[in-house]
């Protein structure tokens, strides 16, 4: 066992720290981390941040050098996340482009696709979203109905996507559509398209989430146009491309685990300061007991992530165990945020500027409901772990 | 980053597993329960031949000179088969304390024998109607010339009936705590206590003007609190691994059964109520394993506060989780799970055995809280857990 990091990795961390100090938006490190309220300004701000990262050589560190990356090792990627969480850096608007679409195109895109898309991903010029889910196809993703039909040299795409994160800000969409209506298995006959969002056949309607934010969208496709050149991989074999695309997420849920770690520390700090009826809540043994058991669980989750990471390092790719990390982190985040709500008593109902401790807990609580659903629900993660890690019999219908 | 047991450790694990499979896994415990302890003795000798009893003993005392992490696979494998005995107390309590605080004479007297598998030590701490708080220790020692004379009663002493020696926690005349090595003697009054986990023996020992030579004092006078604090760190790291081994077996049993048992025309593992329960068991297992590996690792690599946080969180989590898993395993097995015939109950009883051993989950959570600096200036002063470590 060895938890140390090498001299090289330490140098990498220092280089990044220095760079962040010099390049984070003004006032950020001092705690002024307000993002613009106005949606257009917000997008401009985050695109600019992506571009700043790119210019500093931090835009897509795991990519090959010839595409603007650094060929970072897995450990360097981890350090990158740790540092971004430490300074609470602005969110990565092009997360999907950088971690999924870019690497997929680099590996299996055509020369033309590489030429056309890759540089614009890393510079933040084009933001990407993922168009998978539909009103009748969520967990059962292979049930998608959005169709793509060939007319002349065009593919005409019709249907509706939903819950599309970043859809309102995105220029491009990694889209799954049905190209064959009579496949022998329903996940065959699906094709992956690189769709242009800035066209009249694509209409995006933001959905307001339960936390008041609008990060995901409904996307209506009415004769939206794509070309043969926009197909990734082979016709009718989009399922395979999508699975491969997900594997490009080498470090997976890491950033969320480091965020959870930070949240845990913040939680303890907040509780240490917090009093009810003039009594420090930390004096309440039931609070300490709860905190102690959260500590064990979050440390356990983090260490478990390191253990999975160690096997990713050895095998070169992540295994189905990553579902364990996703399930642990999302459920624990929800429970911890729920505990912080309860702790605040009746004033826990107050939020935003009236929140008794810090509105972050109320926000986190509401947001956490999205974490146990998005990217595969907790139930679906349990199926994956049960079937692929433990070897239990397959769920019916799959 | 390399968070895994190394190849040697995994290889050693596979030898142990092969050996314990060969001797019939839980068969040893079952024979032991019936009162036939021969097989257990044979197996302990076999494990000693493989080197299991020499691992963390220094080379100059005829051991292998390895560390706490090297014990992890042994504990896990023993946990898998609910092996009886006081390997834990010997290797993870007595050995580290002897190594660090023992006199040359004491080391020579105990360590080579332990390494060879000829000696096992137990821990005599708890007293009747008391808990593990150190201010409740009444068992007294007085000096009379070249001997130490002990008076008092200890109970719930693991395997009191066949331990070769005991580390006894005593109060001395100037009200400090000290540890004394007391060798087994047929004259010593030991009353067996019935234990729900019948694969474990417990005993009540009455010391009535019991004399041992002065050279049996472990560490110096009044050093007992510090020694105990260090000792229970080692012991709990080891215990966590023992629990993990049990948990791993339980998850394996549940998985296997859910694959073969059919109801309503399909394996019960296809029902999500069952599948998801097993997955949650697996989640707990993997958390506990990561916590326990890390706990053992910190013993040689980290400062005391980090060790405490790592060890106590592993201990508290694993204790509760094992009870949870062992219970679910019985439920998943249905009617057969309720019988003595199959192993489910052995694990549940073992989990309950350790629930309060050397302190409860509550106590360990409090210790964890103070290790993390959460309760500096408040009410916990009257909590028992505080006193386990900080003494009078
Ligand atoms: C914050 C957020 C961001 C998202 N971003 C995107 C995005 O960018 N792109 C995109 O395409 N999608 C996105 N999604 C959609 C997400 O992938 C789906 O919501 C998710 O897969 C669940 O599908 P569903 O909502 O249709 O629920 P359903 O599949 O209808 O599930 C309803 C309930 O049934 C349960 N269930 C379903 N099937 C099973 C089963 N086999 N066994 C047991 N229980 C089952 C589910 O667990 C859930 O509890 C996002 C969702 C969220 C919340």
Automatic annotation (TrEMBL), chain A:
Q: Which GO molecular-function terms appear in the entry?
A: flavin adenine dinucleotide binding; oxidoreductase activity, acting on the CH-CH group of donors
Q: Which UniProt keywords apply?
A: FAD, Flavoprotein, Oxidoreductase
Residue span(s) of domain Acyl-CoA oxidase/dehydrogenase middle: 129-222
Q: What residue intervals traverse the membrane?
A: none
Cofactor dependency: FAD
- Under the cellular component aspect of Gene Ontology, which terms does the record hold? plasma membrane
Identify its protein family: Belongs to the acyl-CoA dehydrogenase family.
Could you tell me what this protein is called?
Acyl-CoA dehydrogenase
- The organism encoding this protein is Virgibacillus phasianinus
Q: What is the lineage of its organism?
A: Bacteria, Bacillati, Bacillota, Bacilli, Bacillales
TrEMBL record, chain B:
Q: Which GO terms describe its molecular function?
A: acyl-CoA dehydrogenase activity; flavin adenine dinucleotide binding
Asked if the record carries the keyword Transmembrane helix, the reply is no
Give residue ranges for domain Acyl-CoA oxidase/dehydrogenase middle. Answer: 124-208
What is an example of a Pfam family matching this protein? Acyl-CoA_dh_M
Residue ranges of domain Acyl-CoA dehydrogenase/oxidase N-terminal in the record: 6-117
Q: Keywords of this protein's UniProt record, alphabetized?
A: FAD, Flavoprotein, Oxidoreductase
Q: Identify the cofactor(s).
A: FAD
Where does the Acyl-CoA dehydrogenase/oxidase C-terminal domain start and stop, copy by copy? Answer: 222-360
Describe the family membership recorded for this protein in Swiss-Prot or TrEMBL: Belongs to the acyl-CoA dehydrogenase family.
Protein name, as recorded: Acyl-CoA dehydrogenase
């Amino acid at each position: 066992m060895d938890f140390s990091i090498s001299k090289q990795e330490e140098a990498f961390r220092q280089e990044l720290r220095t760079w962040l100090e010099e390049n984070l938006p003004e006032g950020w490190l001092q705690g002024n981390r307000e993002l613009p309220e106005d949606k257009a300004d917000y997008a401009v701000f985050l695109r600019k941040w992506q571009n700043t990262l790119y210019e500093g050589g931090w835009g897509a560190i795991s990519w090959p050098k010839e595409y603007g990356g650094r060929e970072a090792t897995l450990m360097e990627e981890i350090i990158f996340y740790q540092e971004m969480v430490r300074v609470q850096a602005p969110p990565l608007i092009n997360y999907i482009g950088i971690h999924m679409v870019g690497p997929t195109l680099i590996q299996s895109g055509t020369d033309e696709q590489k030429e056309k898309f890759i540089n614009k991903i890393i510079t933040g010029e084009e933001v990407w979203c993922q168009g998978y889910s539909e009103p009748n196809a969520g967990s059962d993703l292979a049930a998608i109905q959005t169709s793509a039909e060939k007319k002349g040299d065009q593919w005409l795409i019709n249907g509706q996507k939903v819950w599309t994160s970043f859809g309102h800000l995105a220029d491009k969409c990694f889209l799954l559509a049905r190209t064959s209506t009579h496949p022998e298995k329903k996940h065959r006959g699906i094709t992956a398209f690189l769709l242009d969002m800035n066209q009249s056949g694509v209409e995006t309607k933001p959905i307001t989430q339960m936390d008041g934010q609008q990060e995901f969208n409904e996307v209506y496709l009415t004769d939206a146009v794509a070309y043969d050149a926009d197909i990734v991989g082979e016709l009718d074999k989009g399922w395979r491309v999508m699975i491969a695309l997900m594997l490009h997420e080498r470090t997976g849920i890491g950033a969320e685990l480091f965020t959870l770690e930070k949240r845990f520390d913040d939680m303890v700090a907040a509780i240490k300061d917090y009093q009810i009826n003039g009594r420090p809540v930390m004096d309440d043994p039931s609070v300490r007991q709860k905190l102690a058991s959260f500590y064990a669980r979050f440390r356990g989750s983090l260490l478990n992530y390191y253990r999975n990471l160690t096997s990713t390092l050895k095998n070169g790719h992540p295994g189905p165990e990553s579902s364990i990390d996703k399930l642990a982190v999302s459920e624990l985040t929800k429970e911890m945020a729920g505990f912080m709500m309860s702790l605040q008593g009746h004033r826990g109902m107050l939020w935003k500027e009236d929140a008794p401790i810090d509105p972050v807990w109320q926000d986190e609580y509401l947001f956490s409901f999205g974490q146990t659903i998005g990217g595969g629900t907790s139930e679906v993660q349990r199926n994956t772990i049960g079937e692929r890690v433990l070897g239990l019999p397959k769920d019916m219908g799959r | 980053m390399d968070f895994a047991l190394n190849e040697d450790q995994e290889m050693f694990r596979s030898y142990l597993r092969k050996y314990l499979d060969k001797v019939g896994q839980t068969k040893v415990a079952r024979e032991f329960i019936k009162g036939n302890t021969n097989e257990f003795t044979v197996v302990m000798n076999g494990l000693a031949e493989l080197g299991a009893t020499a691992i963390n003993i220094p080379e100059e005392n005829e051991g292998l000179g390895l560390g706490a992490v090297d014990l992890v696979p042994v504990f896990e494998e023993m946990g898998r088969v609910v092996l009886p005995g006081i390997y834990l107390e010997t290797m993870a309590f007595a050995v580290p304390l002897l190594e660090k605080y023992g006199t040359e004479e004491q080391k020579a007297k105990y360590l080579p024998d332990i390494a060879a598998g000829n000696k096992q030590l137990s821990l005599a701490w708890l007293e009747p109607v008391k808990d593990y708080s150190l201010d409740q220790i009444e068992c007294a020692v007085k000096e009379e010339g070249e001997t130490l004379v002990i008076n008092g009663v200890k109970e719930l002493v693991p395997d009191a009936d066949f331990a070769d020696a005991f580390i006894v926690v005593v109060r001395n005349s100037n009200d400090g705590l000290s540890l004394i090595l007391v060798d087994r003697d047929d004259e010593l009054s030991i009353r067996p206590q019935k234990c729900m986990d019948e694969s474990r023996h417990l005993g009540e020992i009455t010391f009535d003007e019991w004399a041992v030579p002065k050279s049996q004092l472990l560490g110096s006078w009044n050093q007992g609190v510090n020694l105990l604090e260090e000792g229970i760190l080692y012991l709990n790291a080891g215990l966590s691994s023992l629990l993990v081994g049990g948990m791993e077996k339980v998850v394996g049993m549940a998985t296997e059964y859910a694959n073969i048992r059919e109801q309503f025309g399909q394996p019960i593992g296809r029902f999500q109520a069952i599948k998801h329960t097993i997955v949650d068991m697996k989640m707990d297992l993997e958390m506990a394993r990561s916590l326990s590996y890390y706990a053992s690792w910190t013993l040689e690599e980290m400062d005391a506060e980090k060790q405490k946080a790592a060890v106590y969180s592993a201990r508290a989590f694993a204790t509760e989780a094992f009870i949870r898993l062992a219970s679910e395993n019985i439920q998943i097995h249905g009617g057969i799970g309720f019988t003595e015939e199959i192993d489910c109950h052995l694990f549940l009883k073992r989990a309950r055995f350790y629930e309060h051993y050397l302190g409860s989950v509550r106590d360990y959570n409090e210790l964890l809280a103070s290790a993390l600096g959460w309760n500096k200036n408040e009410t916990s002063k009257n909590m028992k857990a505080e006193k386990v470590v900080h003494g009078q």
